[in-house]
Design a protein that fits this description.
The protein is built from 16 helices and nine strands. With 319 residues, it is of the alpha/beta class.
């Protein structure tokens, strides 16, 4: 989730769940090696366990970036072979890379040789593009792909359980229009029982997650958790700690403390606030909350009281 799950977002989500594995936004090898944007790897110790997701297609470059991430303290390196955006396609990585299972395997192997932490893969059930002849859409191809990356050392696979349509659809449409195929995940699990399988796609409530966990090893949730981080709390309570106290006011008070420390170190206010904008969608006071938090003048001058004023519309309305 590029430009979404940055270090501030991850800190916020850790407050909602002590157990969830947090993911960085996808970081390209070009940004780290040629753009010198190593600040994208920044995170604070509270975020563990945390995985870095890399985008690229050159085994040597990916190995270099994997070493950088391991040196920074990440717990897992994840290779994105699922993003369908046009920009990623032009770089021939993301979902476009699925058409070359051996190259993906070489990338996994190179990263695995470079680091001691787990190297994992996130992919789709298949890809479609003009002139593909259907080659990359059936279960036979998917199993061929999984065999290649698993043999190369991938012990954990994150499966977005729908095809990616390359060309003609936006990334948002690619998350909705291709039908979900959870049965492909069940096929993978039956064929590769030792591969840890994490299911992704269409998981927008606790019940859907728990249903998948009858046979999958885990679930990965993106935008639904971003728009409703209480889902992370609900899952933690169900799966890990029934005594966990879900106190959103407390979570946000602790985030305010983090915010104040970040502001004191020179961070701007707007990047710290933007991840809260969607947190209360559909709840009483949400419109006024968003309006208050979108006051550009207050954000520009670093007026930290904007958070208390915004939250008064939520917790005041709830009371």
């Amino acid at each position: 989730m590029m430009a979404w799950t940055d270090r501030h977002c991850r800190h916020l989500h850790r407050l909602y769940s002590p157990s969830v594995i947090l993911f960085s936004e996808m970081i390209t090898t070009g940004a780290l090696i040629h753009g010198k944007q190593t600040h994208q790897l920044d995170f604070d110790a509270s975020q563990h366990p945390v995985a870095v997701q890399l985008g690229g297609n050159d085994p040597h470059d990916l190995a270099t970036c994997a070493r950088l991430a391991e040196q920074r303290g990440y717990d897992e390196i994840n290779l994105n072979v699922g993003c369908p955006s046009d920009r990623v396609q032009r770089g021939t990585f993301g979902a476009a890379l699925m058409q070359n299972p051996q190259l993906v395997a070489d990338c996994v192997s190179a990263m695995g040789d470079a680091v001691a932490i787990p190297v994992t893969v996130k992919c789709r059930t298949g890809i479609q593009f003009k002139g593909d002849g259907g080659r990359y859409q059936d279960s036979e191809f998917l199993l061929e792909f999984i065999e290649a990356v698993h043999t190369a050392g991938c012990q954990r696979l994150y499966l977005h359980a729908r095809n990616a349509i390359l060309g003609g659809l936006t990334p948002a449409q690619n998350r909705e229009i291709p039908p979900l195929q959870p049965e492909r995940g069940q096929l993978i699990k039956s064929e590769f029982p030792r591969l840890e399988l994490i299911m992704n796609g269409g998981i927008n409530c606790c019940d859907k997650a728990l249903e998948l966990l009858h046979w999958a090893d885990g679930v990965m949730i993106g935008r639904s958790a971003y728009h409703n981080p209480l889902l992370l709390s609900e899952l933690h309570k169900n799966l890990h700690d029934s005594s966990f106290v879900v106190d959103e006011a407390d979570f946000l008070a602790r985030y305010k403390t983090y915010m104040q420390l970040q502001l004191a170190s020179g961070e701007r206010l707007q990047p710290l606030m933007r991840h809260l904008l969607h947190s209360f969608n559909g709840r009483p006071g949400a419109r006024l909350f968003r309006r208050t938090l979108s006051d550009h003048e207050r954000l520009k001058r670093g007026d930290a009281s904007i958070l208390d004023d915004a939250l008064s519309h939520i917790f005041g309305a709830a009371a």
